[in-house]
Design a protein that fits this description.
The protein is mainly β and about 550 residues long. The chain is about 5% helix and about 35% strand. The chain folds into 3 domains: about 140 residues, Immunoglobulin-like (Sandwich); about 180 residues, Cupredoxins -  blue copper proteins (Immunoglobulin-like); about 210 residues, Cupredoxins -  blue copper proteins (Immunoglobulin-like), CATH 2.60.40.420. A hairpin with a 5-residue loop joins strand 21 and strand 22. Helix 2 packs across helix 3. The longest helix is centred in the first third of the chain and has 9 residues. It is globular, with a radius of gyration of 23 Å. InterPro entries: Cu-oxidase-like_N (IPR011707), Cu-oxidase_2nd (IPR001117), Cu-oxidase_C (IPR011706), Cu-oxidase_fam (IPR045087), Cu_oxidase_CS (IPR033138), Cu_oxidase_Cu_BS (IPR002355), Cupredoxin (IPR008972), CuRO_2_Fet3-like (IPR044130).
């Protein structure tokens, strides 16, 4: 990685921002994070990937060159709101053309909110092959609401890990007609900081009396994780880049794509080391005894007080006292939260089989299918037709207008939990039904102090209601972050204030050249028709009998 930092002023002193530049050459490398070597996607010849770091107000420029040779790629900056820069968000076919081998694409955006983030491929379910890494946006020195309450900071990533490459998994499991239950592929390994205990034991150096801020990112493709620290309690201060009132926790649960920050106070003495554990929820409901289904459920790290003392044994007995994030209160409450809801959009979510017995996923009975023209490019070029959802094709499009307070009612008709992530926004979580409590479209009163985050778990056979204000024109995906459900189609597309998109977003020439390099249209409707925008002849469609839930 080549990184440069051009200071415009001293950001740490609260002055003007900096320009932070990275050059990323994306290509194949060898790695063995669980002891089994395989090809993974690295950056600048290395894996694990670098942490992208910036300060609030900085301009981040990332030059991406695709050296994979056999796959297109792209990067999504997960949790970054991309105010005014929806074209930098990263989902292939949503806000850009995928970057073909040999091409270069520049991401250029401002980071406006401190917190814990990550970046990952949003092309072809690629990130389980290793194209994912953490990102931190720090407060200016005097603006951290918890400044002075911790002495040092650590970053942890947790993840599941597969030994087969993604194309093989998609072919043999995800889209296999013998997969009649639409079951996801189970990973054989789990990692902390991109290593299993078979390779390295992760250690966090602790000094008696000090306080530590720990950031955690779940970069998994499938598994949620419970994280806990033996004989140490957490004070949670941030979820998904939203500060919260300090809340004590013994254990926290992170679905794929969720992030937490918390403070831990060290013990007064350094007479022993203490284990911390990441327990992956592929063990359904944390059953005891653990079902024998052939994967490693736990990874152990150490709070290392004494380097001469042995690495602590895993904590094998533990009662489950998992923090309910629904009760976390945001430190900042936006002005709009006491406004009435303008639009309610129900979405029924399910998985099933199409006419040929191929697994699919459905939003209101239809799977998302990416189109020939990226959805954002259609919005930019559609003129007066931009508010007509028909022109966007089968991307499960929903149009919302400037300033509307919008409520999504997420009805999970499926037997499994689904973590839903919304690009471009934080949202209030007004309701989250208990597992198997049934779905409901009944009106919901949303507390002004409702939890705010960007990824929420929708429990099995239940309803979650989330709410946001349309104040960021762009094309934003709302999708399940169980990565294997994305190619199945468990995605909706929110086209927010399309006429403002036309007024404020200009697609860079370099981005258009990336489309041209692979003969992809970059104007017109979903099919690339520029004359009659409601004529979708040639657009991509799901199988005819896949329209069900």
């Amino acid at each position: 990685m080549i990184k440069s930092l051009a200071l415009l002023a001293a950001a740490a002193s609260g002055g003007l921002a900096a320009v932070v530049k990275y050059d990323f050459d994306i290509g194949w490398v060898k790695a063995a994070p669980d002891g089994v070597e395989r090809d993974v996607i690295g950056i600048n010849g290395k894996w694990p990937l670098p942490t992208v770091e910036a300060t609030v107000g900085d301009r981040v420029i990332v030059n991406v060159h695709n050296s994979l040779g056999n796959q297109s790629t792209g990067l999504h900056w997960h949790g970054i709101h991309q105010l005014g820069t929806s074209h930098m968000d990263g989902p292939a076919h949503g806000t850009q053309c995928p970057i073909p081998p040999g091409s270069t694409f520049t991401y250029d955006f401002i980071v406006d909110q401190a917190g814990t983030y990550w970046y990952h491929s949003h092309t072809g379910s690629q990130y389980p092959d290793g194209l994912r890494g953490p990102m931190i946006v720090r407060d200016k020195l005097l603006e951290d609401p918890y400044k002075g309450e911790y002495d040092e900071e650590y970053l942890l990533t947790v993840s599941d890990w597969y030994r087969q490459d993604v194309p093989t998994i998609l072919r043999t499991v995800v889209f296999n007609t013998s997969n009649t239950n639409v079951a996801p592929p189970l990973p054989p390994s789990a990692l902390i900081n991109d290593a299993s205990n078979a390779v390295v034991n992760t250690e966090l150096k602790f000094v008696p009396g000090k306080k530590y801020k720990i950031r955690v990112v779940n970069m998994a493709a499938l598994a949620g994780v419970v994280l806990f620290f033996d004989q140490h309690k957490m004070q949670v201060i941030e979820i998904d880049a939203a500060y919260v009132e300090k809340t004590e926790a013994e254990q926290i649960y992170l679905s794929p794509a969720q992030r937490y920050s918390f403070i831990i106070e060290a013990k007064d003495t350094a007479d022993k080391n203490y284990a911390f554990s990441a327990v992956f929820d592929l063990n359904p409901n944390f059953q005891r005894p653990v079902p024998t289904i052939g994967f490693n459920l736990n990874v152990t790290g150490s709070l290392q007080y004494d380097s001469s003392a042995p690495f602590p044994a895993p904590v094998t007995t533990q009662s489950w006292k998992i923090l309910d994030d629904f009760n976390l209160k945001p430190l900042k409450i936006d002005d709009w939260v006491d406004s009435p809801t303008d639009v309610v959009i129900p979405m029924d979510l399910n998985l099933g089989l199409d006419e040929w017995g191929v697994p699919r996923a459905f939003v209101n009975g239809k799977p998302y299918v990416h189109q020939k023209v990226p959805t954002l490019y259609t919005a930019v070029s559609a003129g007066d037709e931009a508010e007509n959802p028909v022109i966007y094709g089968d991307v499960n499009p929903f149009i919302v207008k400037e300033g509307q307070v919008v409520e999504f009612v997420l009805n999970n008709l499926h037997r499994a939990n689904h973590p839903f992530h919304f690009h471009g926004h934080h949202f209030q979580v007004c309701k989250r039904g208990a597992p198997n409590s049934g779905v409901s479209n009944s009106p919901v009163d949303c507390s002004e102090s409702a939890m705010v985050r960007d990824t929420v778990i929708v429990n099995a056979n239940s309803t979650a209601v989330i709410r946001f204000k349309a104040d960021n024109p762009g094309v934003w995906l709302l999708h399940c972050h169980l990565e294997w459900h994305v190619p199945l189609g468990l995605t909706a597309t929110i086209i927010e204030d399309p006429f403002a998109i036309q007024d404020t977003i200009e697609i860079p020439r370099q981005h258009i050249e990336v489309c041209k390099a692979q003969c992809m249209p970059y104007e017109g409707n979903a099919a690339g028709n520029k004359q009659n925008l409601t004529d979708l002849t040639g657009a991509n469609h799901p199988p005819e009998d896949a329209d069900h839930g």
